[in-house]
Every structure is written in C-alpha cells, then in structure tokens.
Amino acid sequence: MKEDYKIAQQPLILRFHRLIEAFSKSDDERDFYLDKVEGFLLFLNLDKHQDELEEVEAEIKAHPDRYCLIPKLSFYETKKFMEGFVHEKVYDIDTKEKLLDIIGGQESRENFLEFIYDHLHELEKWQQYYNERSRIRIIEWLREHDFTFVFEEDMDLPKPVVEKLKVSVFDAKVAKDVQSGRNSMVSKSKTYYSNEALNPRPKRGRPPKQNPKTETVVEFTTDLYQTVPKCARHFLFVPDFKAHAVTFSRKFETEEQFLAGLKGTTKVKVDSKLEALSQRLESLRHLSSKLRGVVPEDQLGGLGAAGSGEEGLAGKVGVGTPADGLSKMTGLAQGFLPSGESAPPEEKKRRRKSVTSMQTKKPKKK
After folding, report:
1. Helices 272-291 and 310-317, packing angle to 10 deg
2. How confident is residue 363, by pLDDT bands cut at 50, 70 and 90?
3. Does residue 23 form part of some domain?
4. Which of 10, 139, 147, 273 has the smallest count of CB within 10 Å of its CB?
5. Which residues are CB-contacts of 126 (< 8 A; sequence separation ≥ 6)?
6. Is residue 74 in a domain?
C-alpha cells in the first residue's frame, strides 16, 4: 500500500452480513469493492448517473492497491452450495430427490429458494448452513488479500467503546478503554488466521439441553468513515442487517420482493379444507341468529350455540318443531349456506318392521 494512505492502528471493523450479501449479489452486472484503508464497501450500481460512474471507476483504477474487487459467485460455486446442503442437512428422501431435480434444472437458484420457503423445517437449516459456508469462503478471501480485520458481529465490546474505536482508527495515542478494546481486537483478529477458522470442529461432549430459542436483536454502531473519496460517497454499500435466506437470491433484494415474485401464488397458503370449514361455521352462526327470530327459544333447544355442526343442527331441528317452522328454517338455510352446498337432506323415515309374536302351545292336561 502506498505511503500517502493513512495507516490504521487497529484491525479493520467489517460487518459479516454486508460481506455475505456482496459475495452473493456480485455478478457480471454488479461490482463490489472492499477498501483496504478503512474497510468500507462500494457498490457500483448501474442505475447511477453515467458521470458519477465514470468518476468512481477512475478513482478505483487510479488506486488499484486500495480497492479489492469482490469475486463473482460462479455457477459451479452456487451449485456446490446447494448440493452440499442437500447431502449434509436434508434427511427426507423425497425432499432430497426433489431438491436435486431442482438443482439440475433451469433457474435452479430461485427455484431452490422457493422450495425451501415452502418447507419451513428446511428453511432454518439452510440459513445456518449458508452462513457457515459463506463465512469460510469470505475468511479465505480476506486472508488471501492480507486483511487484518474483525467482524463486528464477533466483537464482545460495549457499543460506546466500538464507536470510539471507529473514530480513533488512525490515532496512535488513545484512552485506556480504547486501548483495551484494541488489544481485544488484535487477539480476536488472530483467530481468523488459525486453522480452526477454515475447518471448524464440532464441539465434543454431551450436547447441551434444547432450550427454547430466544431471538436477540443485533445492535450495530453507526457507520463512521473518514477517508471515503467524494466521488465514491454515493456508492457506499451500507444495507441494514438482514438475517433471512433470501440473501442467496440473485434477482430480489428484499424478502418482500421475493415473496411477491413467487410463481403462481403468494407465500401464505391457506388450506382449502380449513377455509371451507370456516365458511361453513360462519354461515351456521348467521343461520342460528336468524332462527332465534323464527322459532321459540324453548323449541330450539340450544340450537344457536356457536360451533355446532350441520349434522347436529339437522338432528335438533326435527325435535319438537312445527312443520311451518321447519319449512322456514329450510329456506333460511338455503340462503346462508355457502355456494355449491345444499340444505341438509331430511332423514328418511325408517319403516317399522312388524314382528309376529311367537305362540307356545299349552300342554294338555292328563
């Protein structure tokens, strides 16, 4: 690195969730660059004005030793991610075969995500697997380019201390609390260059008890950069924290856009049987309220109880109800039952079988 650049007095503070998104979205049409001086990300968005694009491209070409181009995610790497997940984390045979068919077809990346979102028990496993594999890939790339860094998600320091570290990144003399934070950062940065960082070992011993998971809100400090060129300020890549699987998507930026783009339907799918049942119960509630004005309460016998089924309703209507009241109820039932449904048919009168009694002959008296 040239001498005219400021030299950081501590490891660079990077955000892993931004790097994983940059590595996922980087392709032939989108370029991402990571700064070596201060650790900010640049996203060369083609939607910007042409003059602005030319200025920032000139800045990057003039300082090739400062900006590192994020590698493109190739088709082979994408397929390797998905196949690794299927072979290592999917245990159901039918689900595994279906996913392998999707991976071998067209638009495998988006179709794979769509299938995962339809199977929620696989969604959480995919999110964890993708983060773990991407972490190894990103650390390898940072080591190749000799970055001394710390992921902000891994820092166990108070938020005010982290903000002071960002402000005094180029200061040689700092306060005691900042110096203590620097020492912690240096020891943490060395762990990324260990063998375990690229080959994490499973923990030995008895597995911990399965406690209910508590969702923790990740709090990040404010972005503070001092050496961003003026022409590159509009290209800073500073997205908010996102912890969902749609990061792997190439077409969609947010989860809302992805769910809206699902083929043929929305994400929330309601079971047709449950929907028909809810409509039927709602119609029965309206019917029972109308019947209270036609048939006296003592003859209804608790007919208007919410949640009663059609079969129980038909049975209770026939008990102690006049013929004219029954005809009125039948007309009301036809008006309130869902379309395609008919009023419950009247029970056929069962014919009573006549049985001749057996006569026994009395014995003759001798």
Report:
1. 20
2. low
3. yes
4. 273
5. 85, 89, 116, 245
6. yes
Inter-residue contact 337 to 288 (CB < 8 Å): no
Which tokens in the block code for residue 242? 């996102």
Q: Where are the beta strands (DSSP E) in the chain?
A: 12-14, 31-35, 41-44, 67-69, 149-151
As a whole number, mean pLDDT of residues 279-300 equals 68
Number of structural domains (the chain) is 2
Domain co-membership, 232 together with 310: no
Domain that residue 304 falls in: 272-336
Q: Which alpha helices (DSSP H) does 232-349 contain, by range?
A: 255-260, 272-291, 297-300, 310-317, 323-336
Q: How far does CA 33 lie from the centroid of its chain? A: 28
CA dist list (Å): 253 to 21, 74, 93: 9, 19, 32
Local structure of 271: helix, strand or coil? coil
pLDDT digits (tens, 9 = 90+) for 295-312: 555 554 444 444 444 444
For residues 148 and 125, membership in a common domain is answered with yes
pTM of the model as a whole: 0.65
pLDDT digits (tens, 9 = 90+) for 339-349: 544 445 554 45
Q: CA nearest 291: which of 281, 307, 308, 304?
A: 304
> In whole angstroms, how large is the CA radius of gyration of the chain?
35
C-alpha to C-alpha distance for 298 and 224, rounded to whole angstroms: 77
The Cα 132–Cα 113 span in angstroms is 17
The partner residues of 42 in beta bridges, in order of sequence, read 33, 236
